[in-house]
């Protein structure tokens, strides 16, 4: 797949099955993340990989976080199984530091670009992925249970695996319709 084909056809894969990215594919995915644009070279990111038992551990983090705020049982049961929707989930964290020239937003954007790069690297290798967040990406108990700081920001849970079905490529939107000349 050439670069423009990747950029013009990338899409998400909500239905993912095993196998997960193998070690070599995962290495490529993580290396691609480090190609994200990064003002001042802060590498403001951390990638927390969950597969096999790790998926259940991530589900337990979600359960404990929701129990701590008194969520209803249905929601808790659903959250427990959320990471099981793929054979691998990478929690992408923006590790934000105080910097005189690089505000928090730019560090969070860099981590977001890393998510996109990882999804593209998965797609280019014939794998599938979907970038998810939801309220748990902003839940203080999740941060504490994952050993994160209050200054950190979870920018995504990147679900990765093998596409369950071969989905048709979605229609491309006309980029020009969102543009104007100054
Ligand atoms: C920051 C961010 C958070 C997202 N969170 C969710 C989410 O929690 N659940 C979801 O179904 N899609 C979420 N999406 C959207 C999907 O990743 C995906 O882009 C969308 O379903 C459109 O599909 P496409 O990527 O094939 O165009 C999120 C996207 C971004 C950029």
Beta content comes to 15-25%
| Cα separation of the termini | 35 Å
Could you give the order of the helices and strands? HEHEHHEHEHE
Reported for the largest beta sheet, the result is:
5 strands, antiparallel
How would you classify the helix and strand content by structural class? alpha+beta
Q: Name the poorly predicted regions.
A: none
Radius of gyration: 17 Å
Average pLDDT across residues? 98
CATH level-1 class: Alpha Beta
Structure, explained:
With 182 residues, this protein is of the alpha+beta class. The chain is 38% helix and 18% strand. Strands 1, 2, 3, 4 and 5 form a five-stranded antiparallel beta sheet that branches. Helix 2 runs antiparallel to helix 5 and helix 3 (53-68) runs antiparallel to helix 4. The structure holds flavin mononucleotide. The site of flavin mononucleotide (FMN) has 8 residues, from strand 4.
Characteristic key phrases:
oxidoreductase activity; NADP; globular; NAD; 182 residues; alpha+beta
Topology:
Blueprint: H1 3-9, E1 16-17, H2 23-33, E2 45-51, H3 53-68, H4 73-81, E3 88-94, H5 104-124, E4 128-132, H6 140-145, E5 153-163
Antiparallel strand pairs: 1-5, 2-3, 3-5, 4-5
Helix pairs in contact: 2-5, 3-4
This protein binds flavin mononucleotide.
Family: Belongs to the nitroreductase family.
Cofactor: FMN
Pfam family, one: Nitroreductase
